[in-house]
């Protein structure tokens, strides 16, 4: 760490500490004589895959968002290699993770998300999601046999339905989306949204899909999967105040909520599947059943949800 810090204009190393909580990357809080920073080692991306994400964040920072842009080292580089992994250092933002969402935080997120979507429209690099159609076809097939029969039926029927839906709806508006804007990827300070972090699922995709990812995490009762309608109204109303979805986007909304639920049910199942022989890793995984319940609730709730 001392060697890494010496390659930046960050003064002297004071201390560093691993951050627990993330499941994809290795993160450290770093304190130097000039301030606090976060060091991220990318565990799932190779070196050449990382610049896209750094460019997305730089674009949004340029547009005034509090997002963690990579610092430049003394050689003019923002991406390094540490222990064989691509590595960056970013500013550590003030604030802390919410323990849970409420009507006010949902309102702030709804407005910020709409602005983020508008700001992402003119970002020129268009990267496909690494967790899109191909991924869910392959992953669902690979883990189908590990599931209870009714889980497998739900998973495979939803994948088949979305294949058809997606082929018919490619024309829906797209932008550069965050792709994983769960409330644990935001920081709040004094009741205000102080930063949006973890852009490593960013891609060029449907705007309403990203909106649905956010609604499913921020507005669901995790015990039942049902929407908390007060949080839901707060987030949706704040969003549409900043960016009004078209009639076609509104018609697609119930499907977007389902696709977004499937995406995270499947990624949690995949992570659980990969970790199942390693009790320590297994204990760190997010619970797939939360997103199974959300998907089941969205499937039950057939009528259009957008007000
Ligand atoms: N720039 C930052 N400023 C403050 N805290 C951060 C920053 N980046 C990460 N963190 C903290 O580290 C945790 C894990 O980071 P994250 O990027 O979400 O990693 P992972 O992708 O592994 O989940 C976050 O939930 C947050 O508490
Ligand atoms: N938000 C995802 C997990 C993404 O990984 P993380 O490393 O950001 O925690 C989920 O909740 O399934």
* Overall geometric form: globular
The H/E string reads HEEEHEEHHHEEEEHHHHH
Alpha plus pi helix count:
10
CATH superfamily of the largest domain: Aminoglycoside phosphotransferase (APH), C-terminal lobe
Please give the alpha-carbon distance between the first and last residues.
Answer: 51 Å
Low confidence ranges: 303-307
Specify the structural class. Answer: alpha+beta
Q: Give the amount of beta strand, in percent.
A: 15-25%
Bound molecules: adenosine-5'-diphosphate, ligand LJ64HWYM
CATH architecture of the largest domain, by name, is Alpha-Beta Complex
Q: Biggest sheet: strands, sense, closure?
A: 5 strands, antiparallel
Q: Give the strand line-up of the largest sheet.
A: 1-2-3-5-4
Query: What is the third-level CATH name, the topology of the largest domain?
Result: Aminoglycoside 3'-phosphotransferase, Chain: A, domain 2
Query: How would you classify the quaternary structure?
Result: single chain
Rg for CA atoms: 20 Å
Broad CATH class of the largest domain: Alpha Beta
Count of beta strands: 9
Family: Belongs to the pseudomonas-type ThrB family.
GO molecular function, one term: homoserine kinase activity
Enzyme class: transferase
Catalytic activity: L-homoserine + ATP = O-phospho-L-homoserine + ADP + H(+)
């Amino acid at each position: 760490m001392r060697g890494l810090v010496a390659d930046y204009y960050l003064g002297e190393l004071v201390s560093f500490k691993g951050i627990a909580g993330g499941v994809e990357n290795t993160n450290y809080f770093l304190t130097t004589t000039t301030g606090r920073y976060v060091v991220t080692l990318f565990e799932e991306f190779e070196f050449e895959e990382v610049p896209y994400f750094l460019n997305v964040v730089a674009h949004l920072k340029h547009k005034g968002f509090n997002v963690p842009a990579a610092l430049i080292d003394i050689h003019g580089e923002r991406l390094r290699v540490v222990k064989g992994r691509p590595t960056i250092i970013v500013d550590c933002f003030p604030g802390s993770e919410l323990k849970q969402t409420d009507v006010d935080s949902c309102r702030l997120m709804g407005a910020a998300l709409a602005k983020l979507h508008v700001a992402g429209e003119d970002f020129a690099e268009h990267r496909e999601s690494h967790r899109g159609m191909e991924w869910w076809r392959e992953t669902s097939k690979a883990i189908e046999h590990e599931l209870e029969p009714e889980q497998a039926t739900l998973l495979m029927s939803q994948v088949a339905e979305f294949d058809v839906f997606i082929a018919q709806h490619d024309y829906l508006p797209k932008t550069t989306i965050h792709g994983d804007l769960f409330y644990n990827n935001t920081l709040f300070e004094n009741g205000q949204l102080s930063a949006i972090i973890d852009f490593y699922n960013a891609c060029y995709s449907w705007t309403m899909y990203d909106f649905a990812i956010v609604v499913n995490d921020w507005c669901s009762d995790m015990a039942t999967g049902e929407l908390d309608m007060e949080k839901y109204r707060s987030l949706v109303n704040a969003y549409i105040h900043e960016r009004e979805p078209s009639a076609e986007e509104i018609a697609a909304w119930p499907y977007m909520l389902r696709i977004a639920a499937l995406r995270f049910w499947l990624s949690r199942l995949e992570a659980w599947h990969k970790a199942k022989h390693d009790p320590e890793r297994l204990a760190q995984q997010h619970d797939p059943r939360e997103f199974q319940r959300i998907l089941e609730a969205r499937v039950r709730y057939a009528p259009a949800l957008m007000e």
